[in-house]
Amino acid sequence: MKELRLVFLGPPGAGKGTQATRVCEALGIPHISTGDIFRREIREKTPLGVEAKSYIDAGGLVPDSVTNGMVMKRLSESDCKSGFLLDGYPRTIEQAEVLDSFAKPDAVIDISVRDEKLMSRLTGRRECPECGKVFHISALADQEKCPICGAALVQRDDDKPATIRSRLDTYHAQTEPLIAYYKAAGTLHEVDGEADRDNVFKSIMAELGI
Ligand code: ADP
Ligand code: ZN
Question: Measured in angstroms, how far is the CA atom of residue 91 from the centroid of ligand 1?
Answer without folding.
Answer: 8
